[in-house]
Design goal:
With about 350 residues, this protein is an alpha/beta fold. It contains 13 helices and 13 strands. It has helices at about 5-15, 15-30, 35-50, 60-70, 85-95, 115-120, 140-150, 200-210, 230-265, 290-300, 315-320, 330-335, 350-360; strands at about 50-55, 75-80, 100, 125-130, 150-155, 165, 170, 175-180, 195-200, 215, 220, 285, 340. The strands form four sheets. The protein has a seven-stranded mixed β-sheet, with helices on both faces. Strands 6-7 form a two-stranded antiparallel ribbon. Strand 2 (about 75-80), helix 5 (about 85-95) and strand 3 (about 100) form a beta-alpha-beta unit. Helix 2 (about 15-30) runs antiparallel to helix 9, helix 4 crosses helix 8 (about 200-210) and helix 9 crosses helix 13. Bound molecules: pyridoxal-5'-phosphate. Pyridoxal-5'-phosphate binds near residues 58, 130, 156 and 159.
């Protein structure tokens, strides 16, 4: 069996360090916003080169809190990609705003900046680019467009911790960068977790209040907030994984290279790197008109594989009514052919051989 992600192996590699740090945190008993949460926030700002990092309970909450802190609400339009996890658009709806889906680039699968520009109306308040599968959106093109129209940029970095454009990390381009530490993400914990980063002191103060019942001083509440704090035990895991993130990301790139070499001689479309940003391969995603045949063969061989994503968001039942007149041909074509192979730092050359042989035989 070859799994998509291999947390068993990740834990085994760091077991002594994790077990000791978890026992310390248990003995310390500061379970809510304790020392590990504070240390992880500090260590994330150091790593990402940004002024403020505010942890929260999940990536979905990170997006929601950022939209609230940006003051986005009913009547506002937020432009985003239809080729992403549902949470990106859910968060827009949580604040009562309207998601506006625009098409993607057929090679990178990231939001198409020309389509963003064409979709801007007087009601557009924000754009939420998703650095999909670990490849940065071309922020050098997107930012000037948004700045010219005074539109906020809220980056969905759930799949791109450590990805950068010439050393500037994803999440540091816009007003907010939102991360998820769901167990399968490239920077992960062992439960739910999230983070919002920002350059603005005012935004950071708002985020800290929103995640903790709208309170800045204890039992004093100036707005309706949430219970959305990162768990202290998850922070322990995150501090350890953060120390390894560069190694994990570079091992992902090595896995991608091995796949590329072995699948080069097939008629499968390999992942495209646009050369603008540094791709961290949260997912290794291919296109093939023979997708179903390949997936069946992989499943029979007990090899993990998945379709990220089978339905573009504008075709999801929950959004279909509002998107009756929306046609996004690139997204609609890509979902018919895309599939993702096992991708994790623990994959061995031998396992990659097995996977590629199975695909070639199919
Ligand atoms: C995982 C993910 C999210 C949501 O993160 P959770 O921590 O699961 O809430 C949001 N956007 C994208 C692109 C994701 O991949």
């Amino acid at each position: 069996m070859i799994p998509m992600v291999n947390l068993r192996q990740q834990y085994a590699s760091n077991k002594q360090e994790i077990d000791a740090a978890i026992l310390d945190a248990l003995a310390n008993t500061q379970f809510i916003l304790g020392p590990n949460v504070q240390a992880f926030e500090r260590e994330s700002t150091d790593y990402l080169g940004i002024e403020h990092a505010v942890t929260c309970a999940s990536g979905t909450d990170a997006l929601h809190l950022a939209l609230r802190a940006a003051g986005i609400g009913p009547g506002d339009e937020v432009i985003t990609s239809p080729f992403t996890f549902i949470a990106t658009a859910e968060a827009i709806r949580y604040v009562g705003a309207t998601p506006v889906f625009v098409d993607i680039d057929p090679q990178t699968f990231n939001i198409d900046v020309d389509c963003v520009e064409r979709a801007i109306t007087p009601n557009t308040r924000a754009v939420m680019p998703v650095h999909l599968f670990g490849q940065p959106v071309d922020m050098t093109r997107l930012m000037p467009v948004c700045e010219a129209h005074h539109i906020e940029v809220i980056e969905d970095c759930a799949q791109s911790f450590g990805a950068h454009i010439e050393g500037k990390y994803t999440g540091t381009f816009g007003s907010f960068g939102c991360f998820s530490f769901y167990p399968s993400k490239n920077l992960n914990c062992y439960g739910d977790g999230g983070l919002v980063i920002t350059h603005s002191e005012e935004h950071a103060a708002n985020l800290r209040s929103l995640r903790n019942h709208g309170s800045q001083a204890q039992y004093q509440h100036d707005r309706i907030g949430y219970n959305s704090r990162l768990d202290e035990l998850q922070a322990v895991i995150l501090r350890i994984n953060l120390q390894h993130i560069d190694d994990y990301n570079s091992r992902r790139r090595k896995v991608a290279n091995l796949y590329n070499q072995q699948l080069a001689a097939t008629d499968i479309t390999l992942p495209f790197e646009d050369g603008i940003g540094h791709h961290v391969y949260h997912q290794y995603t291919l296109l093939s008109s023979q997708r179903d045949k390949i997936i069946t063969a992989l499943r029979e061989a007990q090899i993990g594989c998945a379709i990220y994503y089978p339905i573009p968001l504008h075709k999801q039942p929950v959004f279909a009514d509002d998107c009756k007149d929306v046609t996004l041909p690139v997204s609609e074509r890509i979902v018919q052919e895309c599939f993702s192979l096992p991708m994790n730092p623990e994959l061995t050359a031998e396992q990659i051989d097995t996977i590629c042989q199975t695909i070639k035989q199919a």
